[in-house]
Design brief:
This protein has about 200 residues and is an alpha/beta fold. Helix content is about 50%, strand content about 15%. The chain is globular, with a radius of gyration of 17 Å.
C-alpha cells in the first residue's frame, strides 16, 4: 500500500484536491475532520483542563480556542501536545484497516505535514499551491478571517516555496478545477501503475 501525504498552506485548495481523490475511489484520512470529531468527543476534557474558556455546551469552541492559541507559541504547543497523539491514533486505525483490505493507495490529508514531521510517515508528498494573491482572496473571504489572523496562521506554517521544494508532487490549484482534477488522475496513475478509464 502506498501512503500519499497531502498538504498545503491555508487557502491553497487542499480540501478540493482531497475530494478529487475520493471521487476517484482513493480513501482519504482527513486530519481536520478527525480534529472536529475529537473536539466533540475524546479531546473535550483534555482541552478543557488546559483551556477551560474554550469549552462551550460540552464541546470545544474552535473560535474561542483560536483566540487563546494564535500568536501564542507556548499555548499552541500545549494544544498540539493534546491533539496530535489523538489524531495520530485515528490515522493509524485508518491505515491498518486499509492495509488489511489490500487498498493500493491511500491519502493522508495533513495540513501541518512538514511542520509536524509527518513526511516520515508517508511514502510520497503532494503539495497543493496557488499564487499568493489567490490564497489571500480565498482565505479573507472566510467568515471571521482578518489579515492579522491570516498572518498569525501563516507564521506557524512552513513557507509555500519550501513545501514545494520538498514535495514529490506539486499541484497548482490556481490553474482551475479541470487542471487540478487531471493532475490528481495523473498522480494516481503514476503511483498505482493502473490507468483507470474513469480518469480519462
Amino acid at each position: 500500500m502506498i501512503v500519499l501525504g497531502l498538504t498545503g498552506s491555508i487557502g491553497m485548495g487542499k480540501s478540493t484536491t482531497a475530494r478529487f481523490f475520493r471521487d476517484y475511489g482513493v480513501p482519504v484520512h482527513d486530519a481536520d475532520a478527525a480534529v472536529h470529531a475529537l473536539y466533540e468527543g475524546k479531546a473535550v476534557p483534555l482541552v478543557g483542563e488546559r483551556f477551560p474558556d474554550a469549552i462551550v455546551a460540552g464541546r470545544v469552541d474552535r473560535a474561542r480556542l483560536a483566540e487563546q492559541v494564535l500568536g501564542k507559541p507556548e499555548a499552541l504547543k500545549a494544544l498540539e501536545a493534546i491533539v496530535h497523539p489523538l489524531v495520530r491514533a485515528a490515522e493509524l486505525e485508518f491505515l491498518a484497516a486499509h492495509r488489511e483490505k489490500g487498498t493500493p493507495l491511500v491519502v493522508l490529508d495533513i495540513p501541518l505535514l512538514y511542520e509536524t514531521g509527518g513526511e516520515k510517515r508517508v511514502d510520497r508528498v503532494l503539495v497543493v499551491t496557488a499564487p499568493e494573491e489567490v490564497q489571500r482572496e480565498r482565505v479573507l473571504a472566510r467568515p471571521g478571517m482578518t489579515p492579522e489572523r491570516l498572518q498569525n496562521i501563516l507564521d506557524t506554517q512552513v513557507p509555500d516555496a519550501e513545501k514545494r521544494r520538498r514535495a514529490d508532487f506539486v499541484l497548482d490549484t490556481g490553474l482551475g478545477m479541470d487542471h487540478a482534477r487531471r493532475r490528481v488522475a495523473e498522480i494516481i496513475d503514476e503511483l498505482t501503475g493502473k490507468p483507470d478509464e474513469r480518469r480519462e
